[in-house]
Predict the 3D structure of the following.
Amino acid sequence: MFTTHWSIDPDHSNIDFKIRHLLISHVSGSFKIFNGKMSTANDNFETAQINVYLDVYSFDTNNIERDEHIKSKEFLDADNFPEIKFESTSLKKIHGDDYKLTGNITIKGVTKEVELDAVFGGQAKDGFGKMKAGFEICGKLHRNDFGIQAEDVNESGSLVIGEEIKIHANIEFDKEED
């Protein structure tokens, strides 16, 4: 048995999130800078060990003032915690291409276990002959679990942001050459 190493192709991957605003709509955004690795026994993805690192400074909701506020101490505290880290503990096949991805995510120095839904998109060679593997990953986090306790209500008594953060990622891995 040999180990296969994979790295995230950032040009063909995205990591997005969504959170409710005033309980009437959602604010969406993404992390523009991230990297990660996956290792598997042979090419068996059920043996995968996946590590992903997000640059908190790359947080983008397409609104500079809001982004700077989210990076402040009140929310993600990027100056003290510049990275969000995910380390998998298992990737279990449920049925067909559906998997459960379990791991530990660390935000603001707080580590919690999370279970995510993953759909294996398959493998293919690109135009340069490089083997690729793709996954679509979805799940939810609760901001209060990580000490993101921004003011919950505004002056009029309306909830400003929701508790639940929805995550959606499309990750394309490049198989590394031996």
Q: What stands out?
A: Residues 120 and 130 are 18 Å apart (CA to CA). The mean pLDDT is 91.
